[in-house]
Amino acid sequence: MTTTRKHYPLALAATAVLEDPLPTAPPQMMRGAKILCEALLQEGVDTIFGYPGGAVLHIYDELYNYRDQLHHVLVRHEQGAVHMAEGYAKATGRVGVALVTSGPGATNAITGIADAALDSVPLVVISGNVPSKLIGTDAFQEVDTVGLTRQCTKYNYLVRDVNDLAEVVKEAFHIASSGRPGPVLIDIPKDVSGELAPFVYPSHLNLRAYQSQTFGDPFAVRQAVEMMCNARQPILYVGGGVVHSAGAAELLALAERLALPVTPTLMGLGCFPSGHPLSLGMLGMHGTYWANMAISYADVIVAIGVRFDDRVTGALNKFAPHAEIIHVDIDPCSINKNRVVQVGIEGDAKSVMAQMLELLPAEACASSPARLAAWWQQIDEWKAYSPLTYQNSDSEIKPQYLVEQLYQLTHGDAIIASDVGQHQMWVAQYYPFNGTRQWLTSGGLGTMGFGVPAALGAQIAFPERQVVAFVGDGGFQMTAQELSTAVQYQTNLKVIIMNNGFLGMVRQWQEIFYDKTYSHVEMLSQPDFVKLAEAYGATGLRVADPAQLRSVLAQGLNTPGVVVIDVVVSEEENVFPMVPTGAGLTEMKLS
Amino acid sequence: MKHTISVLVEDRFGELPRIIGLFSARGQVIESLTVSPTLEAKISSLTIVTSGDEPTIEKMVKVLNKQVRVLSAFDVTKLDHIEREMAFIKVKVNSETERQKVLNLASVFNAKVVDASEEGFIIEATGDCNTVRGLITALKPLGVQEVVRTGAVAIQRLPEAAEKMVSGF
Question: B157 CA to chain A: closest CA distance, Å?
């Protein structure tokens, strides 16, 4: 006999009593704000990144009572709150939670929400709104938050009745974390968080139209395995889906058993050990020469948890013209979206790879090295023809050298968050990640200002780990105020500014495609980043001499507390190789 | 090419704008849209007419199916189906001859007169989109003043009916 307390309809109450001799206590009445806190606890939440305001006053009042269970991080800007929740989610694999007020609180959060939508980050963003009866009256700090966020969330809710709140929270966490993960927004009008309702946390979900497939169609998987075993020039093209599904072990087994070359996307870095002999490094616009050549000449591409993004494929009509493609993705909309594939398998990357492993015939595995010998020889030739390299200097710090030094000093174990631009690509190229959830970057939306708050979110999740925000001088200034948050919570966050005084990636494009017309890309006035760090209560360091770089970096990384290291690097270094827009992957500029 | 997409969606706050937004976010134009309740409480049926090549429509249907509250979405155009729409057509007449012409045309198109005055008629026309458009085109030279159309509704034929279909039905 179950003793679970249910909220029985009146007509059934008598029967319920007969079946259950224990006295049934009525559910406790709580205000919406408390229901929200209880529901968050039920979902295992322990950290919330937020910023208070009028519409969330009831919630904040209640959060004070829950301060020992729900650790609230007071950010300095709502965009920061959402990026921190993203960093927390990317580093832990759990759902990140952000809390913002109505109007500007919600609009400031939107950049982060859109970022999470494009990079499939599981988030629950809670926004307050004006009281129900004021909705639609242009009330103070009113915007149509569900309207504004509808196209950049996986799903969103306007809670119109406090009795729905617990169910909405349960659904939101499920939707955010299942299938292809993504952000879910819950908009709660102020009266709803203040009204009383019985708190009953639903035991099951009522989402009849929502389901996602875990295992792939066995017939298609069999077909895929057959293609993989017969391929002469195969390649594994893997991405964020492997990270989300925790499928790194299956990927390693699959690659090793068939001796397959592996190329990860920007979002997949770390899902396959970069130092592994089967790894070709990243592909795409700034991918390695040999990875791009290999995928271009492949006869079978096994694409797992990727979406054939334009930064990966280059000109679609020139992408892998000879290849038959197997595409495994949890999102059916990604399959056949940009490139028509021969075998599309809807399913979770880890589960489908496990299915593949079960079907792999021993003979094919045994004969793989011989079958692929010529292919590997070709790949090695490409690698020898154009290795990843740069011209180092004695007089100025080369950004690539900086990343290499950072890699050595952190033993490749740090969690690195980046902004967007040249520095991001250099980390991708010169920091060989060996594990997942170590690399936090904004890939899809390309959000400058992501790095510092995302790193802080990860640092709060893992106070003992080495977490580094590696940012440019442009992006840093978009969310630099979160240094204050980092100091308030006594974190050990390290920020490295790759300072070239330019919006480097835009400058690079202007140099190459616009005849060096440097239109509005030079930051002619910069704050003194050392003094800025000190003003926030952090430690500031600066280095411009390559001979001192290593010692200054080491000093910064070993100094407790928040440290900002301003690294002055060459002004006009370019990221190569580079696939120009509109070109195919084989049409890379190598220098 | 025109496609008619049929969608069953849980009737929740904000679902309609979410679905419409999926079209505009992809640069797809909605030519007509009908929304109505179904036999099951809290489930709505949408019929959406849009244009595009096969891959575009296929992607659209997939995106619709992916939505949290969408129970099913499919391209009806691919199936054996019946499609109808209704229109009210306000026609002005200036003479007895014109009056007769309008009535004749209405009867040819199996349309009904639902309102009449000295000045003209309101005609209710039902049929597939071509029929309705045909009647409007035929009436235009006589002075059509206003037209309102429901947009298409579509239903898949019964499996047996498709085989037994009689010509002219």
Answer: 24
